[in-house]
Amino acid sequence: MSNQLSLVTGGGGFIGSHLVQELLENGESVRVLELPDVPLPEDVEVVRGSICDAEVVRCALKGVRRVYHLAANPNLWAVKKSDFNRVNFEGTRTIFAEVAKRDIEVVVYTSTESILTGNVDKDSFFNVEMKHKLGQMPGPYCRSKYLAEHEAFKAARAGMPVVVVAPTLPIGPGDRLITPPTRMILDFINSKNPVYLDCGFNMVDVRDVAKGHLLAAEHGVHGERYILGNENLTLEQLLRWIEEITGLVMPKRRIPYWLALMTGVITEFIADYVTHCPPRAPLTGVRLAHHPMYFDSSKAVNQLGFPQNSVRKALEEEINWLLNAGLVIQRLPLIQVRKSLKI
After folding, report:
1. Pairing of strands 45-48, 66-69
2. Which CATH architecture has domain 5-178+202-232+293-309?
3. 297-329 pLDDT tens trace
4. Which of 340, 317, 295 minimizes the C-alpha distance to 18?
5. If exposure means fewest CB atoms within 10 Å of the residue's CB, which of 67, 119, 163, 186 is most exposed?
C-alpha cells in the first residue's frame, strides 16, 4: 500500500464507490467518511458520520494528503427542502473550513453539470466557462450545489489547492442508491413512464468519472473547473438504445414542455403535502429538461487525459446490473435476457 492516505467523502455513493475502487486498485490507502449503514468495502478505513459535523470531519482528515469531496444529497426532491442547503452547502463549507487548518496536497470537489445549464441555442454546448446567477438555479438542489461550488472557488482564491470537477449524468453498474439518472432508466424499463419529454443531456460512464477525479488530483490546475462528460444524447436516442438492449417497446409519445411542467407542479405538491414520497416527475428535473443540456468536455480530455469510453456499453452494463439486482420487474424477451445475463 502507498503511504499516501486519501479521504473520500460520500465513498458509498455511485461515483464515490467507483472512486474508492480506483484508489484501492492504484495501491493507495483510503479512508471514507460516510453516513451510518451505507455499505463500504472491508479494505478501507471508515469514519461514520456527517460532513455537517465539524468534529467528525476533523477526525476524518487526520493524516490525509488528498481529499475527494463527493458527499452530497444528489436527489432532485426531498421532504425537507432545507436538507439540500444543510448537506450540500453547509457540509461543504465545514469541509473547507477544516481543510484550511491542515496541510493538504489537493482537494477535488465534485460539483454538477446542472448548475451550468440555461437558455442557449439548441446547437450550442455548455462549457467550463459558463457562469450563472443563484436566481437562475431551477430548484433547491441546484441552488445548494451552486453555493457549494462557490465555496470551493472561494477556498481556491484564498490559496487552497482546490480542483473542481463537474460530472454530467453518470451511468454504469453499481448504483445502489438509485440516483436520478438510474431512476429515469429503471422507470422506463419497468413501464412506469408511458410518455416522455424529449430533451437533451450528456451521459458518461461512471467509471470514467471516477478516473477523472484521480486525473484532476494529479494534473488539474488549482482553481479550475473540468466537466467530466462524454456523449450528448436526446432522450429519444436513449430510449431507442434501451429498446434495442432489452427488447422492450419504449414509449413513442412525446409530451410538450408545458404539460410536463404542469405534471411536475402537481406531483411535487402531492409529494410535499400528502405522500411525502419522491414524485415521479420532480419539478427541478422538469425545469432542467426545458433546454438541451449538451456539454463540451474537451478541456478535461485535453488537459487531464479524461477517458471517453462507450456510453452505450455503460448503459448495457447498467441494465445488466439492474437485472441481477432484481430491480427490473418487467419480463424481458428470452433472447434479450440471455444476452443481458450472458447465459
Report:
1. unpaired
2. 3-Layer(aba) Sandwich (3.40)
3. 999 999 999 999 999 999 999 999 999 999 998
4. 317
5. 119
Contacts of residue 25, defined as CB under 8 A and 6 or more positions apart, other chains included, come to none
Q: Helices 206-219 & 14-25, crossing angle to 10 degrees?
A: 60
Single out the residue of 209, 200, 264 nearest to residue 232, CA to CA: 200
Domain ranges in the chain are 5-178+202-232+293-309
10 Å CB burial of residue 172 (0-12, 13-18, 19+) is buried
Residue 124 predicted with pLDDT over 80: no
Candidates 5, 24, 21, 4; CA nearest to 13 is 21
> In the numeric block, which cell numbers belong to residue 121?
441555442
How much is the pTM? 0.91
Q: In angstroms, how far is CA 69 from the centroid of its own chain?
A: 12
